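Chapter review: from sequence to fold.
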Amino acid sequence: MTHLLAMAQRLAGALIITVLLSPLVIADSSVPKPEIPKAKGDQCVEDTDYMRRNHMVTILHQRDETMRSGIRTKKHSLKNCINCHATKTESGKLSVLGDKGFCQSCHTYASVTVDCFSCHSSTPEKNADLNLKASKNNPHQAGLTYKRATDLSKKDKKALSQSVSVTITETKNNKAADNSRSGQ
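The token string follows.
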């Protein structure tokens, strides 16, 4: 019985020490924040806090405006973001990816996959102009004489509408075919 009492006292002592020391351990175990490299531009196109929370929505909105409505602006373009935020990687190349890259550092911290660069380049354009004006050298704006779908002639609107309609129909047909092959 004495043996059990001594063991219970040791266990109670260990528990008290653990409870008393745990705030010190918790206070010292802060999660490290990602190292975000400084951008090349003087100021972001939007407020920093807004961009940290909503950049994905802004980029997707820009994509939709460009692809579906023919509206091409430089302010929220992914290419403009890359031109401003690319930093040197360990290999010496400029990119937004890599351990300390602007995009990769935050996305790794947040456990989010960066899927933009499966299609888009993660490196900036050579001699990129960080001014938010239309550039003659930008291949995405080459040959454009209008910025908005509302500025199109009736003939061009009809052609654009048919093109978008065909693309949407093809996409739906491809998804339906994929689903039928996978048994869904």
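Two observations follow directly from the output. Confidence is low (pLDDT under 50) at residues 138-147. The chain has two domains: 25-147, 149-179.
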